[in-house]
Write a structure and sequence with these properties.
Number of helices of chain A: 0
Shape of chain A: globular
Number of helices of chain B: 0
Strand content of chain A: over 45%
Helix content of chain B: under 10%
Oligomer: heterodimer
Structural class of chain A: mainly beta
Distance between the termini of chain B: 36 Å
Number of strands of chain B: 11
Radius of gyration of chain B: 14 Å
Order of helices and strands of chain A: EEEEEEEEEEE
Chain lengths: 109, 115
């Protein structure tokens, strides 16, 4: 079967750095997405990785290792508005998006 | 701004009473998706349209139907809603080619409550 694993919940302090991990087992791989979802709202696109390595976009960076089936999302200089769920999703060999259940990130002052 | 619009944001219906949720897009994307998402769970794909081609997920109940009359609009029909169908329903679009991998763009969702 296909599976995406993320921690259910994480807590971090405003101004700090947090890393949210995602591991996956899918039938094929055509890229990995990270989405942010605030409570009661729709997911919004953050990043896409298809090659190994780190992609940086402002305060957010995403890393991929295809051989390990592993990705992480790194959030720097945390702000209170970063409190949200972060969903990892993998595009499989049929270009179907397999979603993780999301990591709820709680930011404390 | 180009966007994905879902109406209504909140929908309340009675047990067993048919309900239709709507989605429109101005992105001119060729693929449209309907997801069901329950609290603290991953979005669950119900079906998607690749242009006019309808693709139903194997575990989507027969109670759920969809229509895409044109590129811009897509509807989700729930014929006889049960209490278990209370959820957020998300519409998404993407521009896909046979080798493409593009992000999906989501509407704000419709939160469906069943009385």
């Amino acid at each position: 079967g296909q599976n995406i694993d993320q921690p259910t919940e994480m807590t971090a302090t405003e101004g700090a750095i947090v890393q949210i991990n995602c591991t996956y087992q899918t039938s094929g791989f055509n890229g990995l997405f990270w989405y942010q979802q605030h409570a009661g709202e729709a997911p919004t696109f953050l990043s896409y990785n298809v090659l190994d390595g780190l992609e940086e976009k402002g305060r957010f960076s995403s890393f991929l290792s295809r051989s390990k089936g592993y990705s992480y999302l790194l959030l720097k200089e945390l702000q209170m508005k970063d409190s949200a769920s972060y969903l990892c999703a993998v595009l499989d060999s049929n270009y179907q998006l397999i979603w993780g259940a999301g990591t709820k990130l709680i930011i404390k002052p | 701004d180009a966007m994905v619009i879902q109406n209504p944001r909140y929908q309340v219906t009675q047990f067993g009473k048919p309900v239709t949720l709507s989605c429109s897009q101005t992105l001119n994307h060729n693929v449209m998706y309907w997801y069901q998402q329950k609290s603290s769970q991953a979005p669950k794909l119900l079906f998607h349209y690749y242009d006019k081609d309808f693709n139903n997920e194997a575990d989507t109940p027969d109670n759920f139907q969809s229509r895409r009359p044109n590129t811009s609009f897509c509807f989700l029909d729930i014929r006889s809603p049960g209490l278990g169908d209370a959820a957020m329903y998300l519409c998404a679009t993407s521009r896909e080619g046979h080798s493409g991998a593009q992000p999906q763009h989501f509407g704000d969702g419709t939160r469906l409550s069943i009385l």
